[in-house]
Amino acid sequence: MKKRGLISVAAAAALAAASLVAYAPASNAAAKTITLAFQGPLTGEEAQVGQDELAGMLYAVKLFNAKNKGKYVVKVVRADDQGDPAQAAKVAPGIASNKKVIGLVGAAYSGATIASLPFYKQRNLAMVSPSATRVSITDPAAGAIGFPVFHRVVVTDKVQGPSLFKLATKGVSSPKVFVVDDQSAYGVGLVDYMKPGIPAGQSAGFDSVSDKTTDWSATIAKVKTAGANVVIYTGYFPQAAVFFKQLRDSGYTGVLAGGDGVLSPSFVTLAPASVLEGVRLTAGTVPLADISDKLEADFQKKMGKASGVYAAESIDATNIFLSCVSKGVSTRAAMLKCVKKFKGKSLTGANLSFDKNGDVAGGVMNGFEVKAGKIVFTGPVK
């Protein structure tokens, strides 16, 4: 059942209108042209995540352009990093050196963000990520490597790690939890923030395997030897689907869970419904349809498809830049200053601003569950 009442339809429409954009006609010569960029995985195994986030950004831009016809035309440059740090290091220099780009929505993934940061910091390009959650990007104890350009509208893995463990073990009698990461910056970091909060006697073990793994028999043997009744995977959805299928095929009947890297519409298409039924997931996102049916319907009408994961957060991130544009901001220096001072509302109606390190003030971690082949929002993890 969908959760309603997060925000009124009227309020949702007003918030959305602040960020929507339509492609302006060529005759709109008097309008000031502003260029923003999006960076995320637009091709490859992780493409669904990037395409969903890009659609959210384009929707926000479409509304803004329509509302400001004759005054502003916002254009979007796309950088496909495939969710891969190595690829991010190749595409980021081009965006950084494009003087027309005054703000970047992204990067989508933490590893890609870290690889891109040297280029964006050098060129003073403000970033607002809808989904990069690794703590070290903004943590002063880890060097705050994102400062001063990086910002994010989602809570970090410092919140997600404990929340994921809590959700995975909810209702489980005498949980024995086995945790597997994919050796990525994201996966390892999520586990690091999960470990300190694991109650005594509830850890069944840990394993760290490459994200290129196709034969999971070694890890499955460890899970069975440990007698685990809960398995948490902190990697991404393509590998999670294969891992979970092989686990089920081996006879494992316990709880399966994953973080926001697994939360993709494509996840439920990569393994039989019987395998994925009941999989528990966490993410700092709220589906548009659970914010407002009217907002989701408008998104589908304008974008020609349903919204996806992190669409709301991508709209929020884009709206921050657009609010600055509406104030006359047209340079990188002015944009970075404006973003740092931003105070507004998210699509859910929550207060939205950044602390001195670029982290969003407030925020919650939400739960999801796979039911009948669909990922269903179950509300905040408590």
Describe the secondary structure blueprint for this structure.
Blueprint: H1 9-17, E1 20-21, E2 32-40, H2 47-67, E3 72-80, H3 85-97, E4 101-105, H4 110-122, E5 127-129, E6 150-152, H5 157-169, E7 177-181, H6 185-194, E8 203-208, H7 217-226, E9 230-233, H8 237-249, E10 255-258, H9 273-276, E11 280-283, H10 288-291, H11 293-303, H12 311-326, H13 332-341, E12 343-345, E13 351-353, E14 366-371, E15 374-380
Parallel strand pairs: 2-3, 2-4, 4-5, 5-6, 7-8, 7-9, 9-10, 10-11
Antiparallel strand pairs: 11-14, 12-13, 14-15
Please explain how this structure is put together.
The chain is of the alpha/beta class. A seven-stranded mixed beta sheet has the order 8-7-9-10-11-14-15, with helices on both faces. The N terminus is likely disordered. It is globular. It has two domains: 214 residues, Response regulator (Rossmann fold), CATH 3.40.50; 126 residues, Rossmann fold (3-Layer(aba) Sandwich). Helix 4 links the parallel strand 4 and strand 5. It is built from 13 helices and 15 strands. Helix 2 runs parallel beside helix 12, helix 3 packs parallel to helix 4 and helix 5 crosses helix 6.
Keywords:
Rossmann fold, alpha/beta, globular, 382 residues, five-stranded parallel beta sheet, disordered N terminus
Percentage of residues in helical conformation: 25-40%
The CATH superfamily name of the largest domain is Response regulator
Q: How far apart are the first and last residues' alpha carbons, in Å?
A: 18 Å
Write down how many β-strands occur, each being a DSSP E stretch of 2 or more residues: 15
Rounded to an integer in angstroms, the radius of gyration calculated over CA atoms is 20 Å
Please indicate the count of domains.
2
CATH class label of the largest domain: Alpha Beta
Given as residue ranges, the uncertain stretches (5+ residues, pLDDT < 50) are 1-27
Shape: globular
In terms of DSSP E residues, the strand content is 15-25%
Strands of the biggest beta sheet: in what spatial order? 8-7-9-10-11-14-15
Individual helix count: 13
**Class per helix and strand makeup:** alpha/beta
Mean of all residue-level pLDDT scores: 92
Helix-strand sequence? HEEHEHEHEEHEHEHEHEHEHHHHEEEE
The main sheet comes to:
7 strands, mixed
* The CATH architecture of the largest domain: 3-Layer(aba) Sandwich
As for the CATH topology of the largest domain, it is Rossmann fold
